[in-house]
Amino acid sequence: MATKLKITRAVNVNPSTKQRGFSARVITNGKAGYEEIVTEACHNTTLHKAEAKVALELCMESAAQMLKQGMIVDLGPIGKLYPSCNSGWHEHAEDLQLSEVRPGLYYRPADDVQGAIRSATLQWAKAEETDAAIDDEPPADDPATPSSGSGTGSGSGTTPASGDDEP
Predict the structure, then answer these.
(1) CA angle (63 as vertex; 58, 66 as ends), nearest 5
(2) For a Cys staple, 9 with which of 1, 22, 46, 118, CB 3.0–4.6 Å?
(3) What is the Cα Rg of the chain in Å?
(4) Is 159 exposed, middle or buried (0-12, 13-18, 19+ CB in 10 A)?
């Protein structure tokens, strides 16, 4: 069954030209929460959902610790997490101060995850579907928010440019 993603035209400002325009934005269809994911993962298995929760929490705790140590975290069938940072540009190296560097995170989805979203069929949302409040949307200044990028709405700002071990 082909998945359909509903999209809308969202007001966006091009960061380079400061010109107001539009880009595409996905209208989400709810949220799959932690409880729902754990329950679904345990369906038709002998694994109790409490065991799955503990295992997932321990894995994420370890992943967070490894990211803090500057390691690339390979989450197998989900993808990879890369530690990163953002700063302003300066002509001279000595002008770049540690206080203006902000830690960040890049995510590179595994091929199966990337294939799943790329195989989705896009369709324009109806006006009444775009009026609904969107819960858990990242803040506008979040670097992972596709609409805060170049104005293209491509959403590729969270994926490392190339190579398996470098963002």
Answers:
(1) 130
(2) 22
(3) 19
(4) middle
* Token pair listed for 102: 């902000």
Question: What is the model's pTM?
Answer: 0.64
Q: Which two tokens stand for residue 45?
A: 């298995």
Beta-bridged to residue 106, according to DSSP, are 82
Instruction: Tell me the percentage of the chain whose pLDDT exceeds 70.
Output: 77
Rounded distance between C-alpha atoms, residue 157 and residue 146, angstroms: 7
Lookup: tokens for 113? 């995850």
CA 59 to chain CA centroid, Å, is 19
* Rama region for 53: left / alpha / beta (φ>0; ψ in -120 to 50; rest): alpha
Q: Is the pLDDT of residue 9 over 80?
A: yes
> According to the model, what pLDDT value does residue 58 have?
96
Reading the block at residue 69, the tokens are 């140590």
Tell me the per-residue pLDDT of 149-165, one tens digit each, with 9 for 90 and over: 333 333 333 444 445 55
CB 7 within 8 A of CB 123: yes
Q: Say what angle helices 49-68 and 34-42 make with each other, to 10 degrees.
A: 120
- Distances from the Cα of 91 to the Cαs of 87, 115, 166, in angstroms? 13, 40, 24
